[in-house]
Amino acid sequence: MSLSIRHLEILDIARRDGKVTVDHLAEHLGVTLQTIRRDLSELADAGKLERVHGGAVLPSGTVNIAYEERRRLNAEGKTAMAKACARLIPEDCAIFLNIGTSTEAVATELLHHRNLLVVTNNMNVANILSRNPDCEVIVTGGSLRQSDGGLTGEITTAAIRQFKFDIGVIGCSAIDQDGDILDFDLHEVGVSQTILRHSRRRMLIADQTKFKRKAPARIGSLSEINDFLTDAPVLTDLASRCATWQTAIHLCPPEGDGT
What we know:
Blueprint: H1 5-17, E1 19-21, H2 22-29, H3 33-45, E2 50-52, E3 55-57, H4 67-72, H5 75-88, E4 93-97, H6 101-109, E5 116-120, H7 123-129, E6 135-139, E7 143-145, E8 150-152, H8 154-160, E9 165-170, E10 174-175, E11 180-183, H9 186-197, E12 199-205, E13 217-221, E14 227-230, H10 236-245, E15 248-251
Parallel strand pairs: 4-5, 4-9, 5-6, 9-12, 12-14, 14-15
Antiparallel strand pairs: 1-3, 2-3, 7-8, 10-11, 11-13
């Protein structure tokens, strides 16, 4: 595929922001929505982007994208999911928040909750919640992953096993069509599995980009989740499976999104 100047500019924006939207590109580049949709389809066919509702994201592979890039990717969707997740979390409870940009967004939405005990293996979550004087924060310890502030390993899982949480909130790298929850890091998978085993109520927060990605390591299944929060409609087959599993799907579109 021969890339036009417009295609190259679209890719530059995608690399900078983690995603592109049809409306923004049409306005920014001064072309029609139909032209942008055609451009995104051509870039997707060439493997440069992956189409999602309303736009496109950087393609996935067997290696996770950079953390700062993940922070920017679908930030509006993550904020919407985080607000909904915080509404499901009562005050006066013990929760676990694991590694990920979505769980960091949840931490921000918990800044005004009272009498929380939050255990985390996410240094960024701990730093965010240190601003809440009514929140006791416990950091698990473990091997520090400098790229994202995550703590993993046997020290981490041993610390988690000392607790029984009212609510465990996890993220993931990808969700397969059969409902399997996936990640890139085997050490992180072990931590997430331990969180699920030691939580009375289990929440997964994962935006629409996770349905477009693949990852090699299996955390578990949506059948093990009580509340699944996402920002775009789930495919009918998977939604039916969730209903059978009694996994509640909470659709959390960003403000102003007509989804």
